[in-house]
Design goal:
CATH class of the largest domain: Mainly Beta
Strand content: 15-25%
Subcellular location: Nucleus
CATH architecture of the largest domain: Beta Barrel
CATH topology of the largest domain: OB fold (Dihydrolipoamide Acetyltransferase, E2P)
Organism: Cyberlindnera fabianii
Distance between the termini: 58 Å
Number of helices: 15
Shape: extended
Helix content: 25-40%
CATH superfamily of the largest domain: RuvBL1 DNA/RNA binding domain
Number of strands: 17
Radius of gyration: 30 Å
Keywords: Activator, ATP-binding, Chromatin regulator, DNA damage, DNA repair, Helicase, Hydrolase, Nucleotide-binding, Nucleus, Transcription, Transcription regulation
Largest sheet: 8 strands, mixed
Mean pLDDT: 81
Protein name: RuvB-like helicase
Low-confidence stretches: 10-15, 254-267
Function: DNA helicase participates in several chromatin remodeling complexes, including the SWR1 and the INO80 complexes.
């Protein structure tokens, strides 16, 4: 017997929560002033206002090829601000988050990995006006004729297709190649489809909703009868990235022999895309932009833990930022004066060479106060569905100011489990004390190692 189970209402939050699930935006008013507690953010008003100005510059397309550095101690909201920038820009603007160590790979050299992520974060919006015939299929009759090459078989000379829309019907006489496309799409009478006039490509949209009551159980998507005339002009907007174009042009098409078929089936090895190919793609993109067919959408490349990059990548980053087509680069670092990776004697702020520091707009994030930590923990507890008593909140806020905000937040989930085990309605101070005894923070762990000989 087929098992049918009812899907529970998704309004109740049982799904997994990530570290920044609660961040919904920068939390600025219409004048760009940061509210104290808004959109999941608490405090960091100056940093959020600075990020708000950056968002306005990106939207005005006056920021391309420039870079920003988010600098501050651990757990001061650097990654949260970068994600909030992406929320403010919306889903149409590409946002590519990576970590500094991601660029080191055995298969691809680090500069190539950086350029690949650069290209991923530059979008291209292509607008096309296409002539289409769209409607519900009322007739589908292939017309056969004698095979001109002789023999007994017959060939399809043309196909008669009847299409119906809300404003009328049309009968089309189409090429046999289009009939093959119709068969591939598995179009039958009663389906809604559209045919592109210039390319002859066929797309099945779904089953007409006039047939929705035909069966009770049918794995089918029903669509309404198309409005307007059968023959119409349709504007199609396509969003893709420059990396998508690079990959599409780099992949060889191959012939029809067995070996090329095998090559398509096997998982292709990750290969580097040449600079020459990228320049050719750029030329075509520039031509489309000049014609007004396409529009460039510079996105955001977010590189967290930027001190992990070495001197070679920093040098390449300088050059990549000067390219004619470049995204906005947001860097984040929690280091102070430190040696630039790949060198022995160059000490620089945040582990970034001085020539790149000169190019950066630096946004500083400050440590949170006890009150701010309390509000953040309260918000996270709500997101995770954990009731916490006011005394326990005060205790966690004090822990956060003494050790780190991350440690205080990490204590929430185990404290919740211990609280349930003890039968408490909400997390109590005793539950947090027990969780602290089970899980050490970095400072206490260091003390244990220093005071104990032969520990490891």
């Amino acid at each position: 017997m087929v098992q049918i189970s009812e899907v529970k209402d998704s309004n109740t939050r049982d799904s997994r929560t990530a570290a920044h699930t609660h961040i919904k935006g920068l939390g600025l008013d219409e004048r760009g002033v940061a509210k104290a507690v808004e959109a999941g953010f608490v405090g960091q008003t100056e940093a959020r206002e600075g990020a708000g100005v950056i968002v306005d510059l990106i939207k005005a397309k006056k920021m391309s090829g420039k870079a920003i550095l988010l600098a501050g101690g651990p757990a001061t909201g650097k990654t949260a601000i970068a994600l909030a920038i992406s929320q403010e820009l919306g889903p149409k603007v590409p946002f590519v988050p990576i970590v500094g160590s991601e660029l080191y790979s055995v298969e691809v050299k680090k500069t190539e990995a950086l350029m690949e992520n650069f290209r991923r974060s530059i979008g291209l919006r292509i607008k096309e006006t296409k002539e289409v015939y769209e409607g519900e299929v009322t007739e589908l009759t292939p017309e056969e004729s004698e095979n001109p090459l002789g023999g007994y078989g017959k060939t399809i000379s043309h196909v008669i297709v009847g299409l119906k829309s809300a404003k009328g019907t049309k009968t089309l006489r189409l090429d046999p190649t289009i009939y093959e496309s119709i068969q591939k799409e598995k179009v039958t009478i009663g389906d809604v489809m559209y045919i592109e006039a210039n390319t002859g490509s066929v797309k099945r949209v779904g089953r007409s909703d006039a047939y929705a009551t035909e069966f009770d159980l049918e794995a089918e998507e029903y669509v309404p009868l198309p409005k307007g005339d059968v023959h119409k002009k349709k504007e199609i907007v396509q969003d893709l990235t420059l990396h998508d174009l690079d990959v599409a042009n780099a992949r060889p098409q191959g012939g029809q022999d067995v070996l090329s078929m095998m090559g398509q089936l096997l998982k292709p090895k990750k290969t580097e895309i040449t600079e020459k190919l990228r320049q050719e793609v750029n030329k075509v993109v520039q031509k489309y932009i000049d014609q007004g067919v396409a529009e460039l959408v510079p996105g955001v490349l977010f590189i967290d833990e930027v001190h992990m990059l070495d001197i070679e990548i920093f040098t390449y980053l300088n050059r990549a930022l000067e390219a004619t087509i470049a995204p906005i680069v947001v860097l984040a670092s929690n280091r102070g004066m430190t040696t630039v990776k790949g060198t022995e004697d160059i000490r620089a702020p945040h582990g970034i060479p001085p020539d790149l520091i000169d190019r950066l707009l630096i946004i500083r994030t400050l440590p949170y106060s006890v009150d701010e930590i309390r509000v953040i923990i309260e918000k996270r507890a709500k997101v995770e569905g954990l009731p916490v008593s006011p005394e326990a909140l005060d205790k966690l806020a004090q822990e956060g100011s003494k050790t780190s905000l991350r440690y205080a937040l990490q204590l929430l989930s185990p404290s919740g489990i211990l609280s349930k085990t003890m039968g408490h309605a909400s997390i109590q101070v005793s539950d947090i004390d027990e969780a602290e005894s089970l899980f050490l923070d970095a400072k206490r762990s260091t003390k244990v190692l220093e005071s104990t000989t032969g520990y490891l």
